[in-house]
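tool_call: predict_structure(chain=1)
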Amino acid sequence: MSSEAALPKPKRFQNFSIPKSFIGPILISAILVAAHISFGILDTYTKLFTAIIAAFITEAVLHKMVTGEWRNLSSAYVSGISAGILVRSPMLWPFALCAAISIASKYVFRFRGRHIWNPTNFGIVVMLIIASDSMAVLSIQWGNNMWAMLIIWIVGLFTIYKVNKFHICATYVLGFIAFGYLRSLYTGDLFMAEIAPLTGPMYQLFVLFMITDPKTTVSTRAGQSFVAFLIALVEMIFRLGEAVYAPFYALFIVGPIALIIEMIWRERKELRDSETGRV
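tool_result:
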């Protein structure tokens, strides 16, 4: 036997894995880089950094005040960069305020000790209510650059697979397409025009981040798929009413209601089980 054969195999990449807290930041950074290089979606880096810094500061301060400890800022990075991508304004303060509201919602609006809104979705909807004259939301198409879209979806599907949420994305997308067909029959618009928004940056973030947020989704796979279907249904209703930002409004309404119903149902079930002596 040769001496080379007796050498141990390199273990450099053995057991290599990406910590789950890093998956979201890596995905959204990949989306940002691919989209900006291909289509130049950012107005300026200053606005993006303003949103990220505001999210970092808000998360650090509020978490320290509430728990007395410092927090990993990965989720704040996701909210900050999402606000930096989605918000459109000639001024800096809407970027900072949207990011700050997004993070603050996790500490202020809670039910049974749990925040019930996806932070970025909450921040966007509140900004559309209180500052619609100063900001808008990115909703344009990215275009037909299939290489950029392919990169985004490959990285996105890998991430969704890692967190076991692919069924949520699939249910929502299929529901959106089905309801898009129904809308086209009702409005007389082209079917492709009805489903075209799926290729836009707003929907990339919505599908890959907001509706799959582990902290604000119900616990069962069947429940998650049903909620995704309901979001697509309520979105169709908003779209028939010509609401431009229909998906954000749909998630804002359906998501928290579903969580509250599940938490109350679980509490009552546990109470019934304890009363009947079941474990």
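agent: Confidence is low (pLDDT under 50) at residues 1-7. Proceeding to next step.
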